Amino acid sequence: MPSLKLVTLDKLTAAKSNAKSPLQLNFELFDIKITGLDKTKVLSTNGFEKGTEHHEVDFEVPIVKINARYEIDGKLLLVPIKGKGHGEFTLKDVHATMNWKIAFEKRDGKNYIKSTELLLSTDVESMIFNFENLFGGNKELTVSTNKILTDNSRDVWKSMEKEFSAGLAKVLDAVVLPTIECLSYDDYFTD
């Protein structure tokens, strides 16, 4: 199984502007390093029986840290926000549910898993935002914006959850699933 101690991604769209939301941001992360996934605890599983093509895994992670370059442009509670630079984001008490559809592929007379669809929904208890260099490097505005985002992290999360979940699903698809797809599904079950 690959290590989940440090996971890297090239790019993640964390939020897209929505005119109906009080948080109207275009927010992208680049050169992303994610730590904390190695502390994942599986809470429950469903569908892992012989011949089942739908699986569900419910899991939690106490703390996920994301270090990345960022670009952000938009409005936060109708206040313009713009910047680009380094950011560190701490997600506390991440809860996720992975729904995974598979097909079976015959190889050497055995069934192997082939992932056909992976959906992930996530929720966090709170987040700590640390953007550097917002508003052209204005330190006071950067500090106060980070505080506003952190203090309102549940509302911020609601606007980011869909894109973040899709990005984390890509991590699972790239890091975990190739290992699982190499193992014979038939070898997990006795007749």
Automatic annotation (TrEMBL):
Alphabetized Gene3D superfamilies for the sequence: Haemolymph juvenile hormone binding protein
InterPro entries cross-referenced by the UniProt entry: Haemolymph_juvenile_hormone-bd (IPR010562), To_sf (IPR038606)
One CC-aspect GO term: extracellular space
Protein's name in the database: Protein takeout-like
Lineage start: Eukaryota, Metazoa, Ecdysozoa, Arthropoda, Hexapoda
Gene that produces this protein: LOC119640015
